[in-house]
């Protein structure tokens, strides 16, 4: 699980609205103070809802949403973007869903403390993927996983248990275990048989569970994680393509480049030129909004 973006500060969505678009990430946007409007685009219909802080707006990666308000509106926000979400959130919100959760002013210090933990991890592990890789292996900081788990718990505390749905079943648990083991051992380029053996399954059973739970093969799921890790590492200009290829299990810069171009239609160098210094579209808009405010 990667924390792709985090930010805190004031927003003026009334004077500088953000048009609806999908973020491509799981977004936790906490409005700590002020009033605002969330804009949702569903089935070609735009809906604008006026809301008041403190409020959490949790959106799936495919949710087409934006922000607006009245002239002069000023909010104070804390924002997290993750590439994945825990099972309860995926079940309740859905990849294209939006959930609005009111909470108490007394709970704001909890959210601030989680944000500050990310700052602490950044200071200890470094500010770039290369620094993190030197100090913590090619693991994303564990603290970010802890923060994601605590955000999930915070969310669930404000949702009726009747909406939680059934807990993950055996298949979902084993698929999650397989993904976690693969991420931890990605640099060694483990094959499906090795992953299956590590979690005490046969390769055939593992394939069957992946198709049942995710609707895809384990190889496709593993390859997706490889490319996500590679794109994250390439955010550091000091990280060579050789290092990226080795740390993500491709073995070399040339093998990584061929696989990347086949997958995305551009070379890693072209991707880096286009995205270096730019994160997601959501990051750019949020940063621009902050500068204007």
TrEMBL record:
Region listing for Disordered, in residue ranges: 271-293
Stretches that traverse the bilayer: none
PROSITE patterns listed in its UniProt record: HTH_ARAC_FAMILY_2
Domain of life: Bacteria
Residues in HTH araC/xylS-type domain copies: 176-274
SMART domains named among the record's database cross-references: HTH_ARAC
Pfam families (UniProt xref): HTH_18
GO molecular function: DNA-binding transcription factor activity; sequence-specific DNA binding
Keywords: DNA-binding, Transcription, Transcription regulation
Name recorded for this polypeptide: Helix-turn-helix domain-containing protein
Taxonomic path: Bacteria, Pseudomonadati, Verrucomicrobiota, Terrimicrobiia, Terrimicrobiales
